[in-house]
């Protein structure tokens, strides 16, 4: 099994010379250069990166500071961050600080919270970082293509006293739709992606590389920060032979626990902080596999143990992270609203296949082609019956600042949707009427087909906030709304 999907590229096919492939070293993220204090400069532009590594042709991408992912920005909790974003693309852009509870004017939503950054211009984002955790940044302008071509980077806010680990590692996951020559397929915004599962690709990368191995040492304790930067792919990672514990979700601490079914499920934009104890023997090899889509499992990479262990056994220190300063919603007085997500193709026609994570096959594609006429224009997806066109719209809800709210979300479609609220984190109270075990704080909640999910939060950040599906093709095709906190 290899890191290829339904429309696989062959590594050998990419090589005219036909030589075999060499093991690729695991790419470490480059830290950003902070000039003074927490001042950063990132430049969005076009370039080429060795996504496939080795002797394969470089892939033309759009990136920040010449790399995919962009530089890892690291600050300490409570500190102020200042990032000058220079746009050297041929089109407008913005940067959204996903999951950060920033003031509305710093949220990076074109036309809604700022004028987009024109080519040649620079915009300075500056805000305090109230929450420690794992966040990320990406454009909110034509996200499907801009993020899909490589514009994203990790944003890590460190706790004043982090839990002790041997290594703090970030894996930014992505999924690319590459052609045989290793270049990005430019079929962005096609109706099939928009109306179905979104732009699922054929090549999964970790930190901008097709990885082979990740070197570990026996007795080592690693904090692994996972970020799903893919447009549409949902990952479900299983670490064979290991028992990772989840210590934070979407940047927010959670009671440390083993993930359900021993797999870490991350919809687009979602993050998980894991603590993994390396309990293997010297020289051992274990697979990390992605099992989300039925019958399309693949090996992401291998954990490879060094010949000499770091120590006899991993440490047994506490894993619980200190809570962030989030206001606790008062459920007794919370006002309740229902929100229904609708639309998409094949609703009610899918049968079982897609419901449990199947992928569209070729027959489906042909069926789609017959259904396309008449669906080319206007939104395909709706929130409470309305398909958004662009980021500026009348708010679907106006919330009173400081008040608690419960939103009952109903996925009335045959597809998964990771639903993201800007400017706030919310507690996930329950699914299908059953309370969640950890009442986790999230900023993006993954909804299964037909699922009902209840979330709660205090509307304490004033402004107009996007509330949208983070499958970027669904967002572009209407699954987006505005929630106003006034
Ligand atoms: Cu990560 Cu509205 O976005
Ligand atoms: Cu969606």
Q: What structural keywords apply?
A:
7-stranded mixed beta sheet; mainly beta; Immunoglobulin-like; 6-stranded mixed beta sheet; binds CU-O-CU linkage; binds copper (II) ion; single chain; 2 domains; disordered N terminus
Q: Would you mind describing this structure in some detail?
A:
With 486 residues, this protein is mainly β. It folds into 2 domains: 11-305, Immunoglobulin-like; 335-485, Cupredoxins -  blue copper proteins (Immunoglobulin-like, Sandwich), CATH 2.60.40.420. The chain has helices at 11-14, 143-148, 191-195, 352-355, 362-371, 472-476; strands at 39-49, 59-64, 73-76, 80-87, 96-98, 122-128, 133-138, 153-158, 167-176, 203-206, 213-216, 221-228, 235-239, 245-249, 252-257, 264-266, 271-277, 285-290, 298-305, 335-343, 381-383, 397-399, 404-411, 417-421, 426-431, 434-435, 441-442, 444-447, 452-458, 463-469, 480-485. The strands form 6 sheets. Strands 20, 21, 23, 25, 26, 27 and 29 form a 7-stranded mixed beta sheet that branches. A 6-stranded mixed beta sheet has the order 10-9-12-17-14-15, with no helix packed on it. β18 and β19 (298-305) form a beta hairpin. The termini are far apart. The structure holds CU-O-CU linkage and copper (II) ion (CU). The site of copper (II) ion has 5 residues, from loops.
């Amino acid at each position: 099994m290899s890191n290829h999907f339904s429309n696989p590229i062959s590594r050998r096919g990419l090589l005219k010379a036909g030589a075999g492939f060499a093991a690729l070293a695991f790419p470490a993220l480059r830290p950003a250069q902070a000039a003074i204090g927490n001042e950063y400069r990132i430049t969005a532009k076009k370039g080429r990166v060795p996504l496939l590594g080795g002797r394969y042709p470089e892939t033309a991408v759009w990136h920040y500071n010449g790399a995919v992912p962009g530089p890892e920005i690291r600050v300490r909790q409570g500190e102020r961050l200042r990032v000058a974003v220079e746009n050297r693309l041929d089109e407008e852009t913005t940067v959204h600080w996903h999951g950060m509870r920033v003031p509305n004017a710093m949220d990076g939503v074109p036309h809604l919270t700022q004028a987009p950054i024109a080519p040649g211009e620079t915009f300075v984002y500056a805000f305090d970082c109230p929450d420690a955790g794992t966040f990320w940044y990406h454009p909110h302008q034509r996200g499907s293509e801009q993020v899909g071509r490589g514009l994203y980077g990790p944003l890590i806010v460190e706790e004043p006293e982090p839990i002790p680990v041997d290594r703090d590692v970030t894996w930014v996951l992505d999924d690319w739709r590459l052609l045989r020559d290793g270049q990005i397929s430019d079929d962005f915004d096609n109706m099939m992606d928009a109306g179905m599962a979104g732009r699922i690709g054929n090549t999964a990368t970790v930190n901008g590389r097709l990885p082979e191995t990740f070197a570990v040492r026996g007795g080592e304790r690693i904090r692994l920060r996972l970020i799903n930067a893919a447009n549409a792919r949902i990952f479900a990672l299983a670490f064979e032979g290991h028992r990772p514990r989840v210590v934070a979700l979407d940047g927010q601490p959670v009671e440390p626990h083993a993930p359900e079914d021993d797999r870490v499920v991350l919809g687009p934009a979602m993050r998980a902080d894991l603590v993994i104890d390396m309990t293997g023997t010297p020289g051992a090899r274990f697979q990390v596999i992605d099992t989300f889509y039925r019958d399309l499992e693949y090996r992401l990479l291998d954990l490879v143990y060094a010949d000499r262990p770091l120590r006899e056994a991993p440490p047994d220190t506490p894993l619980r992270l200190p809570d962030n300063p989030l206001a606790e919603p008062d459920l007794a007085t919370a006002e309740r609203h229902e929100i229904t997500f609708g639309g998409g193709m094949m609703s009610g026609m899918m049968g079982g296949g897609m419901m449990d994570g199947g992928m569209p096959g070729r027959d489906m594609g042909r069926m789609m082609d017959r259904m396309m006429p008449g669906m080319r224009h206007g939104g395909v997806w709706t929130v409470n019956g309305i398909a958004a066109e662009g980021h500026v719209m009348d708010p679907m809800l106006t919330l009173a600042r400081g008040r608690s709210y419960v939103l009952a979300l109903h996925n009335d479609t045959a597809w998964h949707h990771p639903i993201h609220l800007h400017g706030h984190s919310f507690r996930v109270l329950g699914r299908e009427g059953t309370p969640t075990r950890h009442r986790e704080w999230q900023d993006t909640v993954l909804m299964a087909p037909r699922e009902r999910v209840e979330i709660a939060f205090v509307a304490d950040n004033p402004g107009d906030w996007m509330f949208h599906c983070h499958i970027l093709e669904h967002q572009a095709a209407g699954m987006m709304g505005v929630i106003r906190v006034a």
